[in-house]
Design a protein that fits this description.
Elements (H helix, E strand, L loop, with lengths): L1 H7 L9 E6 L2 E8 L4 H14 L6 H19 L7 E10 L2 E8 L19 H8 L2 E7 L2 E9 L3
Antiparallel strand pairs: 1-2, 2-3, 3-4, 4-6, 5-6
Helix pairs in contact: 2-3, 3-4
Length: 153
């Protein structure tokens, strides 16, 4: 599977350092995340789902990874930095996939009440709607924010 995934994909984005590791049922992406790199990571997640025969999970998983990465870029990136080191892990489970985004910011996300005209503040609500379960936890190097996306019942 590793060769199939890596051959099928272009670099995440020019000028971004990244490392992709795959093994049966798992894909790990270490990336210096920029705003431009989000779509490339989303494409890698889509490619994994396709290779695993899980295309029915595509729109929920790709939207969830986009949201988690955007949150990491916005909230974990240090002021005046152009990127933030992030790890994305996508793991196949018997019933779907487990998606985890790790970043160096120790602050756990908290739901906020977004107004009708607010541009942000809906991330966790969106993740809750897209996933069957989600959560976050502190780590020695920051935090993990995760979501489980299962086949439709």
């Amino acid at each position: 599977m590793q060769a199939d995934l890596l051959v099928a994909q272009q670099p995440i984005t020019e000028g971004t350092s990244s490392a992709v590791r795959t093994r049966a049922g798992a894909c790990e992406i270490d990336i210096a995340l920029t705003a431009a790199a989000v779509s490339g990571v989303r494409d890698l997640v889509r490619a994994c789902l396709r290779l695993w025969g899980l295309t029915e999970l595509d729109w929920r998983a790709t939207l969830a990874v986009s949201e988690l990465l955007t949150n990491a870029f916005e909230h974990a990136r240090k002021e005046h930095e152009s990127s933030v080191p992030v790890k994305v892990v996508l793991t196949r489970t018997p019933d779907g996939v487990f998606l985890c985004v790790s970043d160096p910011d120790p602050r756990l996300p908290a739901p906020v009440s977004a107004g009708e005209k607010d541009e942000g503040g809906r991330g966790l609500v969106l993740i809750k709607e897209l996933s069957n379960s989600y959560g976050c936890s502190s780590t020695a190097h920051g935090k993990d924010v995760w979501a489980t996306i299962l086949h439709s019942a």
